[in-house]
Design goal:
10 helices; globular; alpha/beta; binds the ligand NC(=O)CCC(=O)C(=O)O; Nitrilase/N-carbamoyl-D-aminoacid amidohydrolase
């Protein structure tokens, strides 16, 4: 069983380019359309599911091969709402989830890859902020539980603003890289974008895209959410803004051309110029 799984993994990765500095995607895929759904979230989960499904359909109709939803679109971002609306989709138990069923159905029917923003997940008594990823065949490929260990969003500006995610959620414990029809994708959620180490790790693994579904707080996030996005993009040599949603509900389609990234990274191979020997010597 283990050997069969390894063999499958190898032949799948053989379909992609093999140089660690190149992007991992099928050689015939250079351009793709991404649909970003920015949506208003109501207190009614049923309504949110219906609404998200219609936004995904709009994006697919406009030619999106990959559709992204926001962080915590299933219910409002409060401890009470998240606890009430959490879903258990533990593989071992084969538990069912209305949200995952909807995403799976729409991904398969429209043959699109979906990065399902995030929803509250209940697993073995713990609550997680989890992003499910679906392939164009409708299968759940992976789920990313927010943050690698230390990145839960804890902010306490005494008396003025306090939000402690670690009091609500358990932290995830691994990065998430998925090989999809539209290339290799690294996943982070919102606050994860502040940590360049995660993005660099993904870049080292040859991801073509890093997706960060987000729901930033105005208090801590507004002054920097664009800045950190540009920072992570510049670190990883994809600095140009090609589309922006603004503040309203919106379905935005943007075309990505991987061949531009190949040219840029070949011409200016920053990752080969890194001096790990210098950084580690002065620890
Ligand atoms: N949902 C979040 O991770 C919020 C993060 C945030 O607002 C920040 O400033 O970081």
């Amino acid at each position: 069983m283990a050997m069969a799984a390894t063999a499958k993994k190898k032949s799948e990765s053989d379909r992609f380019c093999s140089s660690p500095d190149l992007l991992h995607h099928h050689p015939s895929l250079t351009k793709l359309k991404i649909g970003i759904c920015q949506m208003r979230v109501s207190g009614e989960k049923k309504e949110n599911l219906k609404h998200a499904r219609s936004l995904i359909q709009v994006a697919a109709k406009q030619g999106a091969n990959l559709v992204l939803l926001p962080e915590m679109w299933v219910c409002p971002y409060t401890e009470e709402d998240m606890a009430k609306n959490a879903e258990d989709f533990d593989d071992e138990k084969g538990a069912s989830s209305p949200t995952l069923e909807m995403l799976s159905e729409v991904a398969g029917r429209l043959s699109i890859t979906i990065i399902g923003g995030s929803l509250p997940e209940r697993c073995k008594g713990e609550l997680y902020n989890t992003c499910p990823i679906f392939g164009a065949d409708g299968k759940l490929i992976a789920k990313h539980r927010k943050e690698m260990q230390v990145h839960l969003f804890d902010a306490n500006f005494l008396g003025e603003f306090c939000f402690m995610e670690s009091h609500i959620f358990a932290a995830g414990d691994k990065p998430t890289i998925v090989d999809t029809e539209v290339g290799r994708i690294g996943i982070g959620i919102c606050h994860d974008i502040r940590f360049p180490e995660l993005a660099t790790f993904y870049r080292d693994k040859g991801v073509c895209l890093i997706a960060y579904p987000g729901a930033f707080n105005i208090s801590t996030g507004e002054s920097l959410w664009e800045l950190v996005q540009r920072g992570r993009a510049a670190d990883n040599q994809c600095g140009e803004i090609i589309a922006s949603c603004g503040h309203e509900e919106n379905v935005m389609i943007a075309e990505i051309d991987y061949s531009q990234l190949h040219i840029l990274r070949k011409g200016l191979p920053l990752f080969k110029q890194r001096r790990e020997d210098v950084y580690s010597q002065h620890n």
